Amino acid sequence: MEKDIEVTVIIPTLNEEISISQCVSKILTVFRDHGLEGEIIVSDSSSDRTPEIAASLGARVIRPEKRGYGAAYLAGFRHARGKYVVIGDGDDTYDFHQIPALIEPLKHGADMVIGSRFNGRILPGAMTPLHRYIGNPVLTWMVNVLFHADFSDVHSGFRAIRREALERLDLRSPGMEFASEMLVRARQKGLVVKEVPITYYPRQAPSKLHSFADGWRHVRFVLLLNPLPFIAIPGAVFALVGFTLMILFALKGQVATSHLHSFILGAFLLCGGVQIVVIGVLMKIYSVTHRYEERAGIIVWIMNYHSLERLLFAGGLVLVLGFLSGVSVIIAWVQSGFGQIAEIVNAVAALCLGTIGLQIIFMAIFTSMMLLREENGDAKNPA
User: Fold this and answer.
1) What residue segments make up the domains of the chain, in order of their start?
2) Rounded mean pLDDT of the chain?
3) Which of 124, 125, 183, 237 sees the fewest Cβ atoms within 10 Å?
């Protein structure tokens, strides 16, 4: 009778022929020394001898349908049979001898365990100063702020998770942002996540990371899931400050002669702030329609067709007010015999009202289009 698999170790590889043998050998040593019934899955997209070397040592090699850090893991998860699933890179930067340290908290109630490099040791040459002192700390801070977490290393690639917990996460990111998605999903699902210190070693081969491109993918993903703190709230503040400036200077009078530049600055802040808020709302709606998040809060109201009709009406009303303000400027110009006029307040008000009206109208239209996608069921398998 075949024994149940206790531990599945998944290694994503892309041309790791220099280091893959050390990784597989260390895992097999852990299985033997700790009496673990385990399997090794190498999710490979290499063009070198990586898959042959891994298979010769006893690993099961699979070929993902498409390349990418996340795509490799998603393919590996579909083949995993172990009670506990461990993931780690194939470049020998993580010491697979530390697998038991990751599994131990899972046996005592944790759902996921992260091997924290920042709570452990980062050996000289293992991480560039850009990643160590800027990239990883900033992105970790963003995830902690946006999702009320307390992680020390959100981009560690050495992790362990219960298979039933893994199935609850509904992971789908194909790229490097997969690392962030895994922890964000865990927070959203209420999983118990622990961290254990690990040692991070230098790579034997050149790094395949693209600092700015990969960093942007992480930033884009976490902002998509929670655009409120870093997008919508700053936008609302800008709009409020701009509106206040415009009202104060309009009431004060003599805008054309004394406060023109400040008045225009207020108009810029108002229009720009509203646009930023609109972008934040649309990002949130995109996240919901693509099943990254559930409907909650004000998004429930916005994603209602009756609410969209009200938004269209409100946007149209603001646009009409802007048009009427503009007409008053034209009338004053005609009455002056097409000479110089001092209608700065009405002219800028017309510009602002027209711009904001159009922003609201097209936000409602675009939201309606995304709801059509959701209704047609296309969001179940987003690209």
Assistant:
1) 7-225, 228-380
2) 91
3) 124
- Residue 176 corresponds to which tokens in the numbers above? 């490097």
Is residue 240 pLDDT above 90, yes or no? yes
- Token pair of 292, please? 């990254």
pLDDT 10s digits, 305-332 = 788 889 999 999 999 999 999 999 888 8
DSSP class per residue in 210-265:
-HHHHHHHHHHHHHHH--IIIIIHHHHHHHHHHHHHHHHHHHH--HHHHSHHHHHH
12 touches 69 (CB < 8 A): yes
The helix (H) or strand (E) run that includes residue 84 is strand 84-87
Of 211, 214, 213, 31, the residue nearest 131 (C-alpha): 211
Can you give the pTM of this predicted structure? 0.82
Residues β-bridged to residue 145: none
Q: Helix axis angle, 178-188 relative to 69-79, nearest 10°?
A: 60
Q: Minimal CA–CA distance to 283: which of 361, 370, 198?
A: 370
CATH of 7-225, one of 2.40.10.220, 3.75.10.10, 3.90.550.10, 2.40.30.10: 3.90.550.10
pLDDT at residue 335 greater than cutoff 60? yes
Report the alpha-carbon distance of residue 58 to residue 151 in Å, rounded.
35
Read off the amino acid at residue 299. I
Instruction: Convert the pLDDT of each residue in 94-133 to its tens digit.
Output: 999 999 999 999 999 999 999 999 999 999 999 999 999 9
Separation in Å, CA 332 to CA 176, 191, 339: 59, 65, 10
Is residue 1 scored above 50 in pLDDT? no
Could you tell me the two tokens for 130? 């850009």
Instruction: Kindly tell me the burial class for residue 296, based on how many C-beta atoms sit within 10 Å of its own C-beta (0-12, 13-18, 19 or more).
Output: exposed
315-333: b (≥16 Cβ within 10 Å) or e: beebbebbeebbeebeeee
pLDDT score, position 379: 44
Say how far apart CA 350 and CA 359 lie, in whole Å: 14
Tell me the sheet residues that pair with 10.
41, 87
